[in-house]
Amino acid sequence: MSDNQRLKVVLAWHMHQPQYQDLLSGEFRLPWTYLHATKDYVDMAAHLEAVPQARAVVNFAPILLEQFAEYSAQIERFQRDGTLIQDPLLAALASPSMPAGPASRTMLVSACRRSHDQRMIERFPPYLQICELAARVDEQPFNIAYLNDEFLIDLLVWYHLAWIGETVRRSDPRVRRLMDRERGYSLSDRHELLGLIGGLIASIVPRYRALAERGQVELSVTPYAHPILPLILDFASAREAMPETTLPPAMYPGGLDRARWHIRRGVEVFEKYFGFRPAGCWPAEGSVCQTSLSLFAEAGVEWVATGQGVLSHSLHAAGHAPHAMKEAWLYRPYRTSGGPACFFRDDDLSDRIGFRYATWHTDDAVADFVHALEQSAGCCQDHPDRVVSIVLDGENAWEHYPENGYYFLSALYRKLADHPRLELTTFHDALATSPTQDLTHLVAGSWVHGNFSTWIGDPQKNHGWELLVEAKQAFDGAAIAADARALAEKQLAICEGSDWFWWFGDYNPAATVSDFDALYRLHLANLYRILGIAVPATLTRAFAHGHGTPAHGGTMRPGSASN
């Protein structure tokens, strides 16, 4: 079978975390950026490096790239002159002694148990034993007084060992040596682990840049702080797919300028770290609308990717019911008037990897996935312009897989790279042989249900927007110096990020909602402080409360698209 008869397949991975750093104090309030760096981002690069014939698209949120740089700089400064690392867990790893106060020690114990129960705690007997003892502290807080420094050090080390990528665990002798020791870790051991963590974080951008330079990976970008641009532009865009939804009472002021700012700044940050302008963009959560597409085109973006539900809603709105066979309508790029090319993810195939295969045997999961693609290849054998888009989170799913997805990803890349009827490609290259189909109108939406219900409409989410509207009005009315203005603009952008609104809502896990509620209010309060305005009393009180439970014993993974 010739190459032009093979079904083109794009595997696209999106890497992002919101801003966890307090811009005024410099402290990182949550550790997820560096933990996903050492576990997931390095593994995702290593799996591609191990199969040079495989190809993929990898998307980075600019605010994540900046956090990599900040962590690398802080660890390097500590190693050079002992400057304190402004992340509580890494600072504890570097310190000769553990925190003395009961509140700090309790925080450390609680934080170091936030790992997937089955895949990351039960897998390592020494870590499991320590966590079982630590659980008694949660049951009876006064027990913290009986935990000595040695216990806390062992817990801290094993927490970080569990969050090391599987490809690193199998190749770096330092990891094996520390795991074999099991307990009784010295300060030298901890500094060796800290050096390993710093090296892994520092390696991420160069490794992906090298993959891009040899044409194996196409790198793309998201607007700077991962905002839902259609909502920033106009809350009413939510009603295109949800006519009856309840919206905040006031629209977001100056949304058009803010949307342009996020796009422009996102491209600038990407270019700073990778050395070239990206051709494509995965808008935050695949959120698009007619106006945002025009803004992307204005910025020179060649392609964007979004969700299947957006296309389905758009075709219905145009009076064209989608064909029963998705190969007939989903597997092609589209273009609205004056906009970039739009690719629409296959929700089923993407969600099989993101939410379903974690509990399957690797052979069965890969066989099932490849079989589904082979069936599509058969349907498309007379249409060589067809391309299937598989787009998903590149970080949170893997803690639910055995060995961080090591066997699954290794087998998947090998099978797809060698398959005679399937061709792994990138969105940029797919456009060379897949002409775009006209789309008369695009209904605003995201990858989740094809709408914005995950970010607006719920009372808690709407209240979050109301607080942001008030802060933006204060920003617009403030007269501040140019240097403070730049910091205020960045702080405002952080507040405009999507993740805060994702986690607001009673159905989400209580601990995670509490974390994100507190961090969102901190970022808003910092904006007022930068503007020289008194912080409103409303920001001193939590407004979001969750009562859900984490999915499958995990930590940070959002619920599935069916929630």
Structure annotation, total helices = 22
Mean pLDDT: 94
Could you tell me how far the N terminus lies from the C terminus, measured between alpha carbons in angstroms? 41 Å
Instruction: Classify the secondary structure makeup into a structural class.
Output: alpha/beta
**If you compute it from the alpha carbons, what radius of gyration comes out, rounded to the nearest whole angstrom?**
23 Å
- Poorly predicted tracts of residues: 552-563
Question: Could you give a short account of the major beta sheet?
Answer: 5 strands, parallel
Overall geometric form: globular
Helical residues, percent: 40-55%
How many extended strands? 10
Sum up the structure in keywords.
563 residues; alpha/beta; five-stranded parallel beta sheet; five-stranded mixed beta sheet; 10 strands; 50% helix; 8% strand; disordered C terminus
What this model shows, in words?
The protein has 563 residues and is of the alpha/beta class. The protein contains 22 helices and 10 strands. It has helices at residues 32-50, 62-81, 88-94, 102-111, 117-121, 125-139, 149-162, 166-169, 173-181, 187-213, 229-233, 255-274, 290-298, 308-317, 347-356, 362-379, 406-418, 427-433, 459-477, 482-495, 499-503, 510-531, and strands spanning 7-15, 56-60, 217-221, 280-281, 303-306, 334-335, 341-344, 387-393, 422-424, 437-438. The strands form 2 sheets. Strands 1, 2, 3, 8 and 9 form a 5-stranded parallel β-sheet that branches. A hairpin with a 5-residue loop joins β6 (334-335) and β7 (341-344). It is globular. The model is unreliable at 552-563 (pLDDT under 50).
